Amino acid sequence: xxxxxxxxxxxxxxxxxxxxxxxxxxxxxxxxxxxxxxxxxxxxxxxxxxxxxxxxxxxxxxxxxxxxxxxxxxxxxxxxxxxxxxxxxxxxxxxxxxxxxxxxxxxxxxxxxxxxxxxxxxxxxxxxxxxxxxxxxxxxxxxxxxxxxxxxxxxxxxxxxxxxxxxxxxxxxxxxxxxxxxxxxxxxxxxxxxxxxxxxxxxxxxxxxxxxxxxxxxxxxxxxxxxxxxxxxxxxxxxxxxxxxxxxxxxxxxxxxxxxxxxx
Length: 264
Prior knowledge:
Elements: H1 10-30, H2 34-43, H3 48-72, H4 81-99, H5 105-123, H6 142-162, H7 167-179, H8 183-208, H9 213-237, H10 239-262
């Protein structure tokens, strides 16, 4: 496995620690922490595949703090977890294996074209009247529970393993519009799906040796702190904050992908 290289200076490490803190905050609220981490790793001089592997290492462990907060405050909708997590693991593992062989530019352009739709969806008035302080009950038929959820989680998790940034936002939007969760419940439940997809991709990157363990340690600590602060903020300020952070995450992703795939 790779170790921390001599070209990672103290100033670069400090900048990456700040990025990891900000990424954890954004990731815990609305997803999209990879929008900060992946470009930061590339700017620090890491090859793209190593940057993706490093992001998975940091975000997988960092997400645990947000999951703990949401579970402790009973915001997770457990009815969908068992049917979705196995497909999250499988989808992200296959996506991470695929990126070791294929160029991600085409899928990046497709996601770029889809992002304006996602931003518009986040501003559509919600029809459900559930209070943001309670977890929405799971009212879905068997077709959605046993087909819709696994298929949706598999597709998004494949993207998570293949490229990654924005996965949390897509999961929240899918849970909100497919299952009619309120935004806080969608944000909480998406964390477990996102965690499973991170684990699946991380396994593939570990096997291929695309992890810098010594670099990951301080970044994981900062990311955990960011996740803890962000998840507490989401529960305190509710769906208004989540909507704004989702929109910001998607806008950042669109700009990031636009620069990477259209202007370079």
